[in-house]
Amino acid sequence: MATSAHFPADPANPQKVSNTPFASTQDDKLWRNILLASFAAIFILMTVMSFSYGLSGDEVDMNEYGKAILKYFTSFGSDQTVFNMPKEFNRDGVIQYYGGFFDLVCAAVNKVSPLGEYPTRHVLNAWAGFLAILFAARIAAKAFNRQAAVFCAWLMFLAPFFLGHAMNNPKDIPFAAAYIAAIFYTIRLFEKLPKPAVKDYIFVILAIGITINIRVGGILLIPYLFVFAGLTYFGKKWFQKENIDLKTWIKPLAIVAVAGYLAGSLFWPYGQKNPISNPLTALHEMSNFQVNLNQLWEGTKVFSNELPSNFLTKSFLISNSYVLIIGLLLMAVFLLKARKSPAAPIIYFVVFTGLFPVFYIIYSKANVYHSWRHILFSFPSLAIAASGGWYFLSQALEERKFKFGMAVAAVLLLEPAAFIVSSYPNTVCYFNGFAGGVKGAYSNYEMDYYYNSIKQDADYIIKNVIPKYKPTDTIVIACNAAHLLSKYLVDYKNVQVPYVRFRERNQKQWDYSVFHIALVPDDEIKARTWVSKFTEFKAQVSDCPLSAVSKRPSYDDVKGFAFLQQNNIDSAMAHFNAYMAVSPDDVGMLNYMANIYHQLKRDDIAQKYAERANKLLSVAE
Questions:
Q1: Which residues sit opposite 479 in a β-bridge?
Q2: Are 194 and 108 in the same domain?
Q3: pTM value?
Q4: CA angle (392, 393, 395) in 5-degree steps
Q5: Which of 35, 211, 404, 503 sits at 20 to 30 Å (Cα–Cα) from 75?
């Protein structure tokens, strides 16, 4: 006799009684109320916190892309800007392969929002992060109980890396939210098989479609349907001794797979051009994306296509809280025991959706960078698994009369919570003791690679620098993240923000500088010579500078380079020496002086400058 799949209760429906044996004593009305209160608190906190976070490196491009998509749809396809994005917003030439659903939503909401363009985006980004937490916790309730769901919600919110990205990452966080929502609705679809209601079809189809509309990698969710079907079938047959007529599943799964794939082009202009082949083309192009960024890894700058195979796993290990890592280890220990639960298919499916993308990326040698942000979409599944690990431990301890297993886990959440409070709003810079904390990781691993701290520099400039000048005075602020800093200062017409590389700062005309750690040479990061006595403000975490505002000590260096271009060596050297008298610890100028004296055949003087530079750079060694 055929049976439908049975799973534990949905926390949204308290009348349903969980049939999970491990959950029956705690999954009650009290924990339902605590879960709802947790959702409310997290939603409010994330909304308020979003206003303190800065622009991220991808945000300007994706904002313009969203506007172009909106123009495409509101013009019924006559505005083709979306297929011809300016180079400044499409530097890698792949922006059309992103679905852009989230950016379309942002562009539409910004038409009516009173908050401003980027504050609105950050609120919506935070809400996407909240949705990831919401759906992850609801799955945890199905797989374990509502107490585990509460823990899962706070585990994700108090994950500094995830929380930081939730505020301003327009690519990975919306994708993570849609991905875990699709997993939730896939599970719910199987609850209703073999005869799901129309709404069950609609929710899972739209969830899969929206995921693809954000990133084409959402196509993975279609084969996931059949993975979950297999887990459910064999779990019921082998462990629950139930029989399932697979023939009754063929039609529903086929409908969802086909409709979900086609829905993936609903809000995606490139996909709409050919809904059958273009998503596959985009998947191929993005899977072979060869952007090559210089990354600070284990103390050395390494191009992203040369990063070692352990890059993702080590990045995850050193930038997550102990409570999460321990939870994952516990889930590995109790994974075999989970087969006895009626929720076993859910548990194994969640673990699969968390781990498979990670190992596939490693296996395929995909080009990833910026720590583990490219697998952020797996994080909700991994957080569920970690919550399950602590849940199973608490059950095992309870059998031995110790009833405070989850309380121990809750106490461990205080460690990442303390970091979030102390580092806010630079929470993404969290590193645990495996990397020596923030101070141990500084100069060894990438920090604030998404440029969040630039907002703090801009706030300082607006409050403390611009008021020093008359409105008729021109203020030139050199920056190696000029495309972001300029957005904060757009209302100040007398401020110019040219892009200046850190190594070329002495050759360019500017009054103040804002340099960010991501584009500073690793030797100067280690020695901290990139900040000096002329630095007026540092955005920092644990006394480790992320970006800095500095006043120019002297204009003699740029004057000297002007004479050098005219081949007027004597005048150039006079200005250079005048500059060195004011700023004797400028490593860049020390090296320039050494090189110039070497070319003048004055190696005795050149050596003194080189030794001075080396001495400054050796301080950190």
A1: 499, 514
A2: yes
A3: 0.92
A4: 65
A5: 211
